[in-house]
Amino acid sequence: MESPLPGGKPKPGPLGLDSLIKEFYQKLFTDNQIHGVLDCACGTRRDLYLFHSLGCEAIGSDISDSMLAQARSNLLQCG
Predict the structure, then answer these.
(1) Are strands 36-40 and 57-61 parallel, antiparallel or unpaired?
(2) Angstrom distance (rounded) from CA 32 to CA 52
(3) pTM for the full model?
(4) Helix axes 46-53, 65-78, angle to 10 degrees
(5) Which helix (H) or strand (E) element contains residue 2?
(6) 1-32: per-residue pLDDT in tens?
(7) Residue 39 in contact with residue 48, Cβ under 8 Å?
(8) Sign of the dihedral through C-alpha 78, 70, 14, 17
């Protein structure tokens, strides 16, 4: 799930879990008028991409410089 597919889309998760997660966050953000998200321990970017795709300003932080570097690279590949 960490590597994007050609065309900039993340790999799909198992058994439609990604669509359930997306629906959950979409409802949460809409119902609560959330427009920005700070993703602590963002890892290599999966949730940052999701939050951005839902229209939020998404900022990631991680204690690991190498994880942040990989997140930047992955996000650039996704567009």
Answers:
(1) parallel
(2) 16
(3) 0.71
(4) 40
(5) none
(6) 344 444 455 555 555 678 889 999 999 999 99
(7) yes
(8) negative
